[in-house]
Design brief:
Layout (H helix, E strand, L loop, with lengths): L11 H6 L2 H7 L13 E6 L6 E8 L5 E9 L2 H13 L5 H15 L25 H17 L3
Antiparallel strand pairs: 1-2, 2-3
Length: 153
């Protein structure tokens, strides 16, 4: 049996949740940095783990995301989620952002079998049994959906 100080020791939850793909996403967050003149800014925080995501947004005349900025101070799951959100947010409407947030929340909660049509979100299937991790995963999608709803444009 491996000892906790042995490099081969890794608890099951860590192995399942913080896999190579999650860690790769966590270090590749697009649109990092705050926007100078956003139409809306929303900050979300997870009281469970202290993760925080701030999203700045600018919508075009059709109400679609034209520019996005984000500041992410979160665990690897929250960072991975912010990476996926940031990679697909440009050009999305308010309704699409709200639908993505709702689908991800329902997927994590076990109310639906898939995370919806937002690319890459199935990576969080291993996190479904760990309810304490759900708020961090949802932060970026909650923040961008709320920012889009509040933005003028």
């Amino acid at each position: 049996m491996a000892h906790r100080h042995d490099p081969a020791y890794m608890p099951l939850m860590t192995t399942a949740l913080y896999n190579r793909d999650i860690l790769r996403l966590a270090v590749s967050i697009p649109h990092q940095g705050r926007l100078e003149s956003p139409q809306a800014t929303v900050e979300k925080r997870s009281p469970v783990c202290g993760s925080r995501v701030a999203v700045d947004i600018v919508l075009d005349a059709e109400g679609k995301v034209a520019r996005l900025g984000q500041e992410v101070k979160a665990c690897a799951l929250g960072q991975a989620s912010a990476a996926l959100m940031g990679a697909g947010a440009i050009g999305r409407s308010r309704a699409e952002l709200a639908a993505a947030r709702d689908a991800l929340a329902a997927f994590l909660d076990g109310q639906r079998g898939d995370p919806g049509d937002w690319p890459g979100l199935s990576i969080f299937s291993e996190a479904r049994p760990y309810k304490a991790r759900h708020p961090s995963i949802l932060l970026a999608f909650e923040a961008v959906a709320q920012a889009a709803a509040e933005a003028r444009g």
